[in-house]
Amino acid sequence: MLAPFLKPEVAETMQGRYLLLPPLARAALAARDGKTLAASAEAASAHWDGPPVMGAAARVCRGLAEGDPSLVLDAATYYQGASRPVDRALALEDAAVLLAGLRQPSEARRAFTAAARLYQELGAVWDLGRAETRLRQYGIRLRRDRQQARPGQGWAALTPTEVKIAWLVAEGRSNPEIAAALFLSRYTVQTHVSHILAKLGARSRAGIIRQALDRDTGP
């Protein structure tokens, strides 16, 4: 489904194509499709010296194609500064797999742990499960003290990021204001608020405010 975006005529008309190249490279790598993997890296190379977000995508693709974790880690560093937690988690996961394949277990575990922490904070259970499956074949697993099991409901079920957002909601901040304060996108904040509502069993932001006021102190 993603491969058609490699066509030159698509590149001329689709401004956001660079966003689809890393997922295509990952899919090609998983399918052991070397031709498509190389083509995705070549297509991404056109963005190497472009805006930083495009350059990061190009580094992910080339890193996957060449088996070079340093390029993928460079992209992960950029994503951290750009407040793109999903892209950073994916890049760290990719780097962990490459490092494990190069028999660098300590470095692989470090990258994997950082990716897992982000997935947990984002509530990305499916992504965390995929990452664990990919790394398990190399004998790399999350340590028990890192997994931080949480209850499914109530204030204790909130991740650290969700707790911060819940308190900001309690202060009367809007989603755009929260996004600006935490350097997140509005969509990410909206997703977090939805998760908070579900975990607290609240029907509206007023429900979040009530439960926050029942607690003794802020974050």
Question: What labels describe this entry?
Answer:
globular, 2 domains, Arc Repressor Mutant, subunit A, 219 residues, 13 helices, mainly alpha
Explain what you see:
The chain has 219 residues and is mainly alpha-helical. It folds into 2 domains: 3-147; 155-213, Orthogonal Bundle (Arc Repressor Mutant, subunit A). 68% of the residues lie in helices and 0% in strands. The chain has helices at residues 8-13, 21-30, 34-44, 52-66, 69-81, 85-101, 105-122, 125-136, 144-147, 160-170, 175-182, 186-200, 205-213. Helix 2 (21-30) runs parallel beside helix 4 and helix 3 (34-44) runs antiparallel to helix 4 (52-66). The longest helix is centred in the middle third of the chain and has 18 residues, at 105-122.
In whole angstroms, how far apart are the ends? 44 Å
Segments where pLDDT lies below 50 for 5+ residues?
none
Number of domains: 2
Shape verdict: globular
Number of helices: 13
Our Rg estimate from Cα atoms comes to 19 Å
SSE run: HHHHHHHHHHHHH
Please give the share of residues in helix.
Answer: 55-70%
Report the biggest beta sheet as strand number plus sense, adding barrel if it closes.
Answer: none
Mean of pLDDT? 88
Strand content: under 5%
Structural class based on helices, strands and sheet pairing: mainly alpha
Tell me the total number of β-strands: 0
